[in-house]
Specification:
The protein has 420 residues and is α/β, with parallel strands linked by helices. The chain folds into three domains: 158 residues, Spo0b-associated Gtp-binding Protein, Chain: A; 167 residues, Rossmann fold (3-Layer(aba) Sandwich); 71 residues, 2-Layer Sandwich (GMP Synthetase, Chain A, domain 3). The protein contains ten helices and 18 strands. The strands form four sheets. The protein has a six-stranded mixed sheet, with helices on both faces. β10 and β11 form a beta hairpin. The two termini are 60 Å apart. The mean pLDDT is 88. The chain binds guanosine-5'-triphosphate (GTP) and magnesium ion.
Length: 420
């Protein structure tokens, strides 16, 4: 049996920008043609799309590297290079994407069809045609395209549903899911029949709601003892829990004790015990069940208890009435707040030095590629340049070294005024 995969680590790279071209117009009988090198094409983006047809991250076990196409180089006659194709990656709805190194949430693929650019392709470099001025008629240089880096991301599937089913193994969670939705989960008379979360949509009195069924919890599941721990992730993003209890007390079980145990698991997992909960006393078609009902009501401590039989359907409409009424009052689930994620704006591997009073130097590989990427004739580009230096800590470091407004900062072959 294929195992369920709800976490994966992948490596992604957007396309490099194509290089600008150095070229001069050549024609018979025309001496000294002007510069006509075209711009490089933009690199392709890495794009994520949420797809409700997907339910696991299994594919990402087999393929862990994804790369968008590079932009093509510019060429003569001011021809721009072709832009690189985007790489579109489809993920299940509910996939949370984190940058591995920082753990920051880069995207929460919350809605079906949602489309997010995770990594932007590098800009193409300007060809030499762009650098011709009155005093520089034959520029013999062009800019290289921006080269992008590989980045590691963690994908985590966190199911989004209105209702989550929890309970001991064999309590009848999957039977209830099958009773109220079109889902056809495996149902059998042994614990741990369900090994992967199931999702279905229930309709009741004109209202639809999504229901998530997870494997049964056992004692100390929250410490990883059973199957349950990692699966609780799949009921975290629900608004209401249905706590399914086998009320028959078969095989010497005590329904009230089972109920307390599962709630203790939810508490230990963190955060789930405060989730609104309806108690489902299941298997009421069995004669033993009646006798356990009072004990279960006491254990429920005021939470509403619904006697039902997933097998016969008895009591199910009343339960669904209560679910619909509860959902009406509960707030919608919100996507996880995304954090600033702008890899192209962080530089590593640079060094700042004080040369003498009023003169500072910053150097390093990443500075060189930053300089290559900037178009100094363009206001936006200069702004971006300054933001990048700031975000990377370069400005702070210079200030630490004593730099003041108006001092000179040397970067590669260029000199700038220090601006805070
Ligand atoms: N008599 C009776 N049997 C039921 C009822 N609901 C479920 N069952 C039986 O109880 C057994 C377990 O049912 P499941 O729906 O697989 O239970 P589960 O909680 O999903 O179990 P796990 O997936 O192992 O956690 C099956 O044999 C079902 O037929 C019910 O209302 N009455
Ligand atoms: Mg089940």
């Amino acid at each position: 049996m294929a195992s369920f995969v709800d976490r994966a680590v992948i490596r992604l790279k957007a396309g490099d920008g194509g290089n600008g071209s150095v070229s001069f117009h050549r024609e018979k009988f025309v001496p000294n043609g002007g510069p006509d090198g075209g711009d490089g094409g933009r690199g392709g983006d890495i794009v994520l799309v949420a797809d409700h047809n997907l339910h696991t991250l299994m594919d990402f076990r087999y393929q862990t590297k994804y790369q968008a196409e590079n932009g093509a180089a510019g060429s003569s006659a001011k021809r721009s290079g072709k832009a690189g194709e985007d790489r579109v990656i489809r993920v299940p709805v509910g996939t949370v994407v984190k940058e591995k190194e920082s753990g920051r949430v880069a995207a929460d693929m919350f809605k079906d069809g949602e489309r997010r650019v995770l990594l932007h392709g590098g800009r193409g470099g300007h060809g030499n045609a762009r650098f011709a001025t009155a005093t520089r008629q034959a520029p013999s240089f062009a800019k290289p395209g921006v080269k992008t880096q590989w980045h590691e991301f963690v994908l985590e599937l966190r199911t989004i549903a209105d209702v989550g089913l929890v309970g001991f193994p064999n309590a009848g969670k999957s039977s209830l899911l099958a009773r109220i939705t079109a889902a056809r989960p495996k149902i059998a008379d042994y614990p741990f029949t369900t090994l992967t979360p199931n999702l279905g949509v229930a309709w009741h009195k004109g209202k639809g709601f999504a229901v998530a069924d997870i494997p049964g919890l056992i004692e100390r599941a929250s410490e990883g003892a059973g199957l349950g721990f990692s699966f609780l992730r799949h009921v975290e993003r629900t608004r209401l829990l249905l706590h399914v209890v086998d009320a028959s007390g078969q095989e010497g079980r005590d329904p009230a004790a089972d109920f307390r145990t599962v709630n203790e698991e939810l508490r230990r997992y963190g955060g789930l015990d405060g989730r609104p909960q309806l108690v489902v006393a299941n298997k009421m078609d069995l004669p033993e069940s009646r006798g356990h009902l009072d004990g279960l009501v006491r254990a429920a401590e005021g939470r509403p208890v619904f006697p039902v039989s997933a097998a016969t359907g008895e009591g199910v409409p009343e339960l669904l009435d209560a679910v619909v009424a509860a959902l009406d009052t509960l707030p919608e689930i919100q996507p996880i707040q995304e954090e600033l994620w702008a890899p192209q704006e962080r530089l590593t591997g640079w060094e700042a030095r004080k040369e003498k009073d009023g003169l500072y130097e910053v150097s390093g590989m990443s500075m060189d590629s930053l300089l290559d990427a900037v178009n100094f004739d363009d206001y936006e580009s200069l702004n971006w340049f300054h933001r990048t230096l700031k975000a990377s800590g370069v400005i702070d470091r210079l200030r630490e070294l004593g730099a003041r407004e108006g001092d000179t900062v040397r970067l590669g072959e260029m000199e700038f005024d220090f601006i805070e």
